[in-house]
Amino acid sequence: MLTALLIGGAQQAGAADDFYTPPSPLPTGDNGDVVKSEPAQYANATSTRIMYLSRDTKDKPIAVTGSVIVPDRAWPGPGPRPVVAYAPFTAGMGDHCAPSKTLAGQSSGDLAEGFQKGFVDALLGKGFAVAQTDYEGLGPPGEHSYVMRVSEAHTVLDVIRAAQRTPGTGLPSDGPVGIAGYSEGGSAAASAAELAASYAPELDVKGVYSGAPPADKAKLAETLDGSMYAAFLGYALIGIDTAYPESKIVDELANDAGRKLFEEARTTCTIQAVFSYMFKNTSTLTKDGRPVSAYLNEAPFDRIVAENRIGGIKPAMPVLVEHAVFDDAIPYDIGKRMAKDWCDKGAEAEFRDLFTLSPVLAHAMGMSTASGNAANWLNDRFAGKAANGNCEK
């Protein structure tokens, strides 16, 4: 019973799934334009499921789904109600794991969906509207480009635009916005912080919260391999194979066991994958028996890893990075290094140690603390309070 609760993953199929099929051909329009929308369910809020236009890693137009959730409580001010883009924690790779489905009760993901709801509730509790993206390929047909920097930045920034353009939400088209996310979402939020000025310069981004960001994929290829969270490395390889077809990971590098794992992993939600692939070594999945980390100094992986490292572009808004010292999935030094890289470029950045009740399972436990910290910090930004950057330390 407990295992079933943790793993979950059963999809409740129904007519509503038709919403996730994009029109063919995809309509022309601007990034963030709403392709279609429909009412969705969320307690004490008005929720709208949306499909909107965005761009993938290669700058090709794609259809992405998500939610716009406006709390029933009035916004206490000052100014118009802010919109916060929520970049989700790792939900999985199967379409039934898409947060816009699980948050609305349309589909059963797994225990990770509780983390998603907790983060959204913390933001709604402050009176913010929430614009939640499913990212590329999670919900609609296609593969999810997991932790791919450019695609995830685009989908996060465009869901804000889509929220501002969704009829019936009462949200202004040019109001204040923020961005928040943890783990995969921390990476996506940080990527959006770096690309906002060039990709979406019209957005009035008051601040970005990034928790436990997987900013350095090269280091993670070493630390995740053979670990409890080896599934996240497998997800990242699927993300690379999706975003960069020239990598030919599945076609040329994977052995039969590797191809089988990839096919299975594409249908899983987070906890199912963690339990299924715990302590898996990638050297057992490649044709030549080398671990994934051994390829990263070779073409095209050296370029791909460099393109997906976060910290190379100065964010144009205040940023807060938090990371648990004993994080057991994404090493603490990765988040701290990203913040330092931003500081070195003159960003208005702050880094904090993320408190967790226990060092055991610190990565998962950290999200509960992160949600409240993100909501409180963004609330101060919307109130016009100065951010307390600590780059001098």
Write the SSE topology:
Elements: H1 2-7, E1 34-40, E2 45-55, E3 61-71, E4 83-87, H2 99-102, H3 112-125, E5 129-133, H4 149-165, E6 176-182, H5 184-199, E7 204-211, H6 217-223, H7 230-243, H8 249-253, H9 256-265, H10 270-277, H11 301-307, E8 319-323, H12 332-344, E9 349-353, H13 362-382
Parallel strand pairs: 4-5, 4-6, 6-7, 7-8, 8-9
Antiparallel strand pairs: 1-2, 2-3, 3-5
Helix pairs in contact: 3-13, 4-5
What do you see in this structure?
Helix 3 (112-125) packs parallel to helix 13 (362-382) and helix 4 (149-165) packs across helix 5 (184-199). It contains 13 helices and 9 strands. Residues 1-15 have low confidence and may be disordered. By secondary structure, the protein is of the alpha/beta class. Strand 2 (45-55) and strand 3 form a beta hairpin. It has a 9-stranded mixed sheet, sandwiched between helices. It has helices spanning 2-7, 99-102, 112-125, 149-165, 184-199, 217-223, 230-243, 249-253, 256-265, 270-277, 301-307, 332-344, 362-382, and strands spanning 34-40, 45-55, 61-71, 83-87, 129-133, 176-182, 204-211, 319-323, 349-353. The protein starts with a helix and ends in an 11-residue tail after the last helix. It has 2 domains: 2-216 and 316-382, 3-Layer(aba) Sandwich (Rossmann fold), CATH 3.40.50; 221-306, 434 Repressor (Amino-terminal Domain), CATH 1.10.260.130.
Features of the shown structure:
single chain; 393 residues; alpha/beta; Rossmann fold; 434 Repressor (Amino-terminal Domain); nine-stranded mixed beta sheet; 13 helices; 9 strands; globular; disordered N terminus
